[in-house]
Amino acid sequence: MDSRLSNSSSSNHHSNSKKRKKNATANNANQKTLGVAWGSKSLSASCSSRKSPFSDFSSYMAHKNCKLQNQFDSEASASAARNTIFSGVSIFVDGFTVPSSQELRGYMLKYGGRFENYFSRHCVTHIICSNLPDSKVKNIRAFSAGLPVVKPTWILDSIAANRLLSWVPYQLEQVASNQPKLSAFFTLKSSKMSEDTSTNALCQVEPDVEDSFPRVGQLKERHPSEAGEMVEVCRQISNESNDISSKKTDVFMMEEPISERVICDEEKLAEANSSETNNERNTEGELDPTYQEPSTSVSIPCSDNQNVHQFPSSEATGSSKQCHSTLTDPNFVENYFKNSRLHFIGTWRQRYRKRFPTLSTGLNNGISNSNKSDINSVILHVDMDCFFVSVVIRDKPALLDKPVAVCHSNNSKGTSEISSANYPARSYGIRAGMFVRDAKALCPHLVTFPYNFEAYEEVADQFYSILHRHCNKVQAVSCDEAFLDFTDAMVEDPELLASSIRKEIYETTRCTASAGIGGNMLMARIATRTAKPNGQCYITPERVDDHLNQLPVDALPGIGYVLQEKLKKQSVHTCGQLRMISKNSLQKEYGMKTGEMLWNYSRGIDYRSVGIIQECKSIGADVNWGVRFRDMKDCEHFLINLCKEVSLRLQCCGVQGRTFTLKIKKRRKDADEPAKFMGCGDCENLTHSVTIPLATENVEILQRIVKQLLGCFYIDVKEIRGIGLHVSRLENADTSKQGTEKYTLKSWLTSGSASVKKQKYHMGHNKHNSDCANCASSHGCIHSQGSSFQIDNKILNIHVSGDPISTPPPLCQLDVEVIRNLPSEVFSELNEIYGGKLIDFIAKGKGKCESSSSLGNSLEDDAAICKEEDLPYSDPIPLNQIFSENKAMQHERVLGSGHGSCSQVTHNSNIERDDLLPSSLSQIDASVLQQIPEDLKAVILEHLPAHRAQAFCSTPAICPGRINQDSVGVDTSKNCPGTVNHALNDSLRAGNLPSWMDKFKDSSCLRKLREIYHRSGFNSQLSSVLPQFLSEFHHLDLTQEIYDETVNIMCELLKQYVKVKIERDIEEIYICFRLLKRFAVKSQFFSRVYNDIFPFLQAAVDDNYGGSLFMP
Amino acid sequence: MQRKENETPQGQAASVLVEFLEVAITAVVFLKGVYPSGAFERRRYMNVVVQRARHPQLRYYIHATVSGLLPFLQKGMVDRVAVVFFNTDNVPLEKFIFKLTVNQSYGSSVEGVDLQISLRSFLAKLSVSESLTKKLPPDCRWEITGNFQLLPETGTSKEANFWIPTDTKQWEQPLFITPIRSMSSDPLCLQFYIEHPSLSESSVLREGNSEL
């Protein structure tokens, strides 16, 4: 081990060395099977305490080892052996051998080898034995720690040959045949590796295989971690020199140390594949320490210590940093949930419902009218006995009374948790949630099995089909537990029924079940508790009190650890004691609900009725294991997968959610690496959530939300140990879909015009523009009458402004108005594109425009307006909408095409975005809004309040009575000034600011107002136009402009405006008049207007509000 | 915010409105400083910071009053809801008026987002409107009044019995209105403004106060 490495890892060094010590003792405890098993790691502990007499057994052993080594060294030097056949070889003799261990020791002395009295993975290179008990053969890795197990004849033959022979032929047959094949496991992943790299690697490795060990040791010193792998490879290859396929996979291991190692270490994930390979893999992770210690350096014990310290630290960093499970496995999330028991249980209900759909729904209906407090009710609670274990061992009757547990890992040092243990195992004190290593310490012969989810599902299905056959009121609690209501079935003997059900379950599934019968769900459950395992119990109403009296409180459902502790403080241990407390004081102490529950339950009262299926309130997924990120990219990649998972679950349940909560487990500052391998350890839990207006299950929206949420944390991704995403405020997808489907951009695009969609993709490079298109299309989608017209405009717009390369649309799709209003240079350009047909088209279009009730209203062209105004509005309601909208569209189009270049269009559309905005929020399609990028959405929302008032202006449907007047032609306003008021009245009553704005064109000052109005982007709020007007107004020579008529028109305008707004938007009026008052100080014109209009205003306010407007 | 399917748009708007009024009235009371600021705690509603009364009775008063409005709001019977601050003589000094119009003919569904965003602007505006209001004398009181378009018959419904006629005197002179915020998002149109007594009246009031 070089010093560089120790320096580089010095930061971790102290904590790691401390931890290693702990581990070392833990290791020792686990090596009991080996008889004498004291690792040289414990030596490290002793060196520091050498001066003191042995503080404990381990330091004594370390000392003894030192002494034995010194003895051996001195004897070796005394024997003056010059022969060094065995240099670098250090043997440990296990059990009875011929020749005896003492003879072997003599040989080693003589021929330069070493002999260890006590096994240590760090000193020993070979284990010599001639026979092994079966248990050791089965668990060969735990026994040999991956070291070669060789027959003693190897030593004798080597001496005879006077050179170190390869030990491979001398390997113990039992072990050699037992060697598990990695190939089965690795071929899946590594098949993509090309053949030639593997042969290459083989070439490199081959010489080492033949080699003597010192060289390997040298190699190791250069690249400790790699060399560890190397040695591994060498050994493996010599182990199985016949087996080519396994050779290859071993080489892969070296080639891809990072990824493969991770898979090795990920007990949880990979284990499901096969428990055998698992066994092997787990020990592999521990191999490096074994080999890091070259046998030649034994003479300096202190350096041992150093190395022992250093290597683990480098290894630790190696495993925690390189071997990111979330990093290296691209499908981590998927695999994680594939192997998660909780996930299985969580999603089981969904599968159950799908399987028994009619039963579970029909049940619900039946329940609602059933009498809750039926005295003679009979409830049966059926629960499978240690379901997860018994399903796995149902085909292995030999294991029936052996301690068996289900767990991800079989490693005796593993930190994977026991998920279920059978009754023999429980008698050893093994409980669910325990680490395997603790369980194995309690019961060394514990047999562990991996999960078998298919089997669980199969058995659960069998279980439920039996239950459903017997009873039509079944409430599933979990995959292995259910309540049955036999009240209506008039059962003669419930016990008989229960035993027949249990018998049937056993015969079908070969797993036992326990049953409890009671008058309600609570009692049935409590009865099951007494009945377990494999029994049944009937608590008749008479026996309820007796039974409950001595029942510990924590046996009641709903009483967890916290509540139990609280009750203990009140010295309440049994239900009998609980009954002493009055309901009131219980409710005071524990809250209304909990108090009542305690009071009821302690008396055996339970009003719940069988069959009420709780709707899930939130759906989500948490990953708290194996989460390690190197950088933001990893984290985002992980989140994307998590979103997919959550989205799938939502879809599975057929719901959509509105609130999204991201939970993050952040490593506490001072927290060590967790005890559980790749676990989350001591963490802070942080959450952020966001609620969106429209429920969704869309994975892309989810991803966007989640990314945003992650940003809220301001967290270093390296600190993240767990992530969960939950969706709540669930809504049924079907109903919400019906409502929104027709409004979504997508459906509109697909149904409305496929070509638009296509165009949009063309425009993909010009993102902004297409966003505008989104706005516009949402618009169009709302006003369905206008939509088809607008689509065409849209296409044109895109073509003209954005995408000059694509082919122009057919002539018939062009909007005449637009073409006509194009600047001349653009028009000629377009004309060229269409080969001169445009001119004809325009001429034709003019006629068309006049004959049809055209919507196009050119703002720039007075002539067009003349024509326009001649036309009566036949259908004012939709027209009003389309009218203003069309203008907006045109405006943008004109501007956009005027510049003709892509980038400038983008820029312009930015400014003109207001035009495209719907005039009020109510016109916005929320689903569209949702799909707009965040920043854009913010801008839109920011702009919307300014448009607020147009909501009633532009939606005349509010006041249908007024629209009738609208059919009067407006052209009169121009021709005969006398009727101007009337005309204004009409147009204003219709509430459309744009149309009355046109009336000002004959007055130079008011024309200005109109221009400003146009420039402001057709904002219908007068208050937003006025300030600009004032600033412009100063430039005009006002003294020349003040005519009575102008003042009159202005007054009339304001009057109309007041009339329209007073009832519903006094704020707008207030703002306008305060502005006006301010202008009045500066301008004579406005002061006249203000003075004229003010009495009218106050009268109007008084009419509506019974007071006068307070003008400060 | 999950609304029942069968609810009318008016009903939906009314229930949102009731929720909003509770917050807004608390905000007004907080703004006017009738109670020490310690009597309120910061909360978040519709994503803006609002105040909530700490004292359970105060909270209950506001909550119960506004909830009592709900059935009438749904029917569109409530013309305005006012928070009235008055002095010891029961002469109102300042009124905060919520004038409501619930469009009964509106048929389509309510977009919760619109309402929320519009209503939120009220709360935002209110929090910066202190300068528009008058300073109150130290020993003033306040109440919530509801102006109904027609008086509900007391015997008929339980909800109606909840309401009692107010003792507060009316202003004799015309009053002044200072609009704060208006919004209209179908089916709900809401205007929020302050009413002050006319200058002459308020000066009389001030004199009267000084005599006291």
Q: How would you characterize this protein structure?
A:
The complex is a heterodimer of chains A (1112) and B (212). Chain A has 1112 residues and is of the alpha/beta class. Chain A is built from 61 helices and 17 strands. Chain A is extended, with a radius of gyration of 42 Å. Chain B has one domain: HORMA domain (Cell Cycle, Spindle Assembly Checkpoint Protein, Chain A). The longest helix of chain B has 24 residues, at 9-32. The A-B interface holds A 693-694, 729, 731, 735, 739, 920-922, 924, 926, 929, 941, 944-945, 948-949, 951-952, 955, 958, 1063-1070, 1101-1102, 1105-1110 and B 1-2, 5, 99, 101, 103, 109, 111-114, 116-118, 121, 174-186, 189, 191, 193, 195-196.
List the main descriptive attributes of the protein structure presented here.
heterodimer, A: 1112 residues, alpha/beta, 61 helices, 17 strands, 59% helix, disordered N terminus, B: 212 residues, alpha+beta, Cell Cycle, Spindle Assembly Checkpoint Protein, Chain A, five-stranded antiparallel sheet, two-stranded antiparallel ribbon, globular, disordered C terminus, nucleotidyltransferase (chain A), magnesium (chain A), DNA-directed DNA polymerase activity (chain A), metal-binding (chain A), deoxycytidyl transferase activity (chain A)
